[in-house]
């Protein structure tokens, strides 16, 4: 491909200089993106803003106090986002694996620190870099729409304090608003009848806030992931009758298969049963003697006091339409989210049909904060190098950063990938780091100060070693 044609192709993806950037969300990912944007914006040539739904920083690392009414489910698509924290929660992964390269101290010597140390860590980053000045709190992004003629994004937001709707244009959007937004409760047969006859008995683990309301009750916990195992562990130290419903549970923690942080109370071990198949509910009477939970092996269980569904979350973009009359998505097939899958994302973060939309955090892996930091370095570097391209029409550093194939060879099969990067926990951040450094090397020396990149080293050998030990469930990270 000739240099002229290459420039045309790059211009088709990056049609204008990036002078104004919106970061959606001020949780861990948003904090890291803003931090890296400040690194490449020392001359303040880029106008950076952040819209945060809540009145506080930190995203899911905040504790929400709830009532015991679990019938009114909510999610981030509404005006209030309920975090899944409870007062005694500790991290699911070692604290030393949750920090970023240049700020390695979480402030706790515990192997699995209390969640407050993570929140304090994020608060310290914000104070250190004075990031608060860039944030508009209590601001809900309702829609992001690309204006083809103006080559920019129209963002429609709602001020939750004044109820004022605002429209504003941006050259680039970095979405850090999280995708684990919708409570996932299996669509069991008879579920609706159960909820109608037994209001308040079913709750998602997002709303668990401690053992107090379950003391002396019969509780079925559905699931075997971290939330389920931790809740069962806590309940075992009360006089609850605990039943855990799931597929077979591994005896030993290996890799990402979690057991509780501490052994279950040997004097109150849960009864393990097979997964729930359906609810058998007699809706014609208020009597309960003929109502049962049916398990996959045919066992019938009487209706318990509570069912806690620790069954995870569905994947949803808050700001992007799911079907496309919107120019963001050229056809209805070119969506980004599909419950448990991400689509059309290059390097798991760049929307291939319009790469001035990026998303941080549309993946699952245990070491999220350091991984998001690599994505944040990459996003900031891309914005800077796009501006270099528009100033010089030299596409070499940009192509070193983003790769050539998806830009210079459009029309290839759409990118559909699993959200999990368990097999790439080391190769993925290394790749992002190498791309940034290659782009920096290709940038002529006289432009390095004007268009700086957010340089970052690959994960250290010690970090990789500790992560491998943790993945194998070896001391000091074993929990059994």
Automatic annotation (TrEMBL):
Superkingdom field: Eukaryota
Keyword Oxidoreductase: yes
Pfam families, sorted: FMO-like
Key word NAD present: no
Entry GO MF terms: flavin adenine dinucleotide binding; N,N-dimethylaniline monooxygenase activity; NADP binding
InterPro entries: FAD/NAD-bd_sf, Flavin_mOase, Flavin_mOase-like, FMO-like
SUPFAM superfamilies reported for this sequence: FAD/NAD(P)-binding domain
Key words of the record: FAD, Flavoprotein, NADP, Oxidoreductase
Family, per entry: Belongs to the FMO family.
PANTHER family, sorted: DIMETHYLANILINE MONOOXYGENASE
The protein's name in its UniProt record: FAD/NAD(P)-binding domain-containing protein
Source organism of the structure: Conidiobolus coronatus (strain ATCC 28846 / CBS 209.66 / NRRL 28638)
């Amino acid at each position: 491909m000739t240099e002229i044609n290459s420039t045309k192709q790059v211009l088709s993806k990056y049609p204008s200089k990036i002078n104004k950037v919106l970061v959606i969300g001020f949780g861990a990912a948003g904090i890291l993106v803003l931090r890296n944007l400040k690194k490449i914006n020392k001359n303040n040539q880029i106008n950076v803003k952040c819209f945060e739904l809540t009145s506080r920083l930190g995203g899911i690392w905040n504790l929400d106090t709830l009532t015991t009414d679990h019938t009114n489910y909510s999610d981030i698509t509404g005006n209030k986002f309920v975090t899944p924290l409870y007062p005694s929660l500790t991290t699911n992964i070692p604290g030393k694996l949750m920090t970023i390269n240049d700020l390695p101290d979480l402030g706790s010597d515990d192997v699995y620190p209390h969640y407050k140390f993570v929140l304090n860590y994020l608060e310290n980053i914000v104070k250190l870099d004075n990031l608060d000045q860039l944030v508009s709190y209590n601001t809900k992004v309702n829609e992001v729409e690309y204006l083809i003629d103006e080559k920019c994004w129209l963002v429609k937001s709602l001020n939750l304090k004044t109820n004022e709707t605002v429209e504003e244009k941006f050259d680039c959007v970095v979405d850090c608003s999280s995708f684990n937004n919708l409570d996932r409760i299996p669509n069991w047969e008879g579920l609706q009848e159960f909820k109608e006859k037994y209001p308040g008995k079913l709750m998602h683990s997002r709303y668990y806030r401690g053992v107090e309301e379950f003391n002396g009750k019969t509780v079925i916990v559905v699931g075997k992931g971290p939330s389920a195992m931790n809740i069962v562990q806590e309940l075992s130290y009360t006089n609850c009758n605990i039943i855990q419903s799931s597929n077979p549970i591994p005896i030993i923690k290996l890799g990402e298969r979690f057991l509780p942080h501490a052994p279950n109370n040997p004097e109150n071990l849960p009864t393990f049963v097979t997964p729930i198949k359906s609810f058998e509910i007699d809706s014609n009477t208020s009597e309960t003697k003929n109502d049962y939970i049916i398990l996959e092996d045919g066992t019938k269980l009487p209706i318990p006091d509570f069912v806690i569904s620790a069954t995870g979350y569905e994947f949803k973009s808050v700001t992007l339409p799911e079907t496309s009359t919107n120019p963001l998505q050229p056809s209805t097939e070119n969506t980004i989210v599909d419950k448990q899958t991400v689509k059309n994302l290059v390097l798991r973060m760049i929307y291939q049909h319009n790469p001035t939309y990026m998303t941080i955090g549309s993946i699952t892996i245990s070491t999220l904060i350091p991984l998001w930091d690599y994505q944040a370095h990459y996003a900031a570097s891309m914005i800077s190098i796009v501006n270099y391209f528009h100033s010089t029409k030299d596409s070499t550093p940009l192509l070193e950063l983003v790769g050539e194939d998806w830009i210079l060879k459009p029309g290839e099969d759409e990118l559909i990938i699993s959200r999990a990067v368990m097999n790439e926990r080391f190769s993925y951040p290394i790749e992002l780091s190498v791309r940034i450094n290659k782009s920096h090397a290709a940038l002529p020396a006289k432009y390095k100060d004007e268009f700086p990149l957010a340089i970052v080293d690959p994960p250290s050998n010690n970090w990789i070693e500790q992560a491998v030990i943790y993945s194998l469930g070896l001391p000091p990270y074993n929990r059994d």
